[in-house]
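Write out the bound-state structure for zinc ion.
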Amino acid sequence: MEYLKCLYCEATNHKNARYCGRCGQYIALEAKKSLHKSLAYLLAAIIFYIPANIYPVLLTSKFANAQGSTILEGVVAMWQSGDYPVAIIIFTASIFIPLAKFGVLFYLNYTLARCQTQNIAKRVMLYRLIELTGPWSLIDVFVVLILVALIHFKNIAIIPGIGVSSFALMVVLTILSANVLDPRLLGEECEKR
Ligand SMILES: [Zn+2]
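---
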């Protein structure tokens, strides 16, 4: 690569520039640092995915005995009571999309670390897809919080469980993992790393 694009203002800079000539942001391409950070965030996200799925997201406390249900139990319960659209949305947002993102981020990290030069267009598309879905990942944390707010007024108290906090952390860590992965690496030759 002869030139270095600024990720903030898209200005074209000299390939060895450390700071953008137009907006002054730090733009040096640091492949190893970017990949290590991304992988670390990804592993942390995968770790939090486990408590997000085995601990309850909602605790219903009625007459002092608290009962909880995990994401999957919630999906099954909604499906059985006929709320198919909600069940499908929750399943997609909290089980399918996070797993797909882990897969894509791992694939991008792996292929970049191994200096693979094939499928650049496909990998750029996957990266864009991850960036696009990022802001939507907290959808079911919102669902839980709305439920908590709605039902709090009745006699039954509903409190968010450990599952929700783990899920929210997992989502933030996944976004960070995608964020620190420098997309300019996808078009970069590998010898310089
Ligand atoms: Zn700039």
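---
Residues 40 and 131 are 18 Å apart (CA to CA).
The helical segments are 31-54, 71-80, 84-113, 120-133, 139-151, 162-180.
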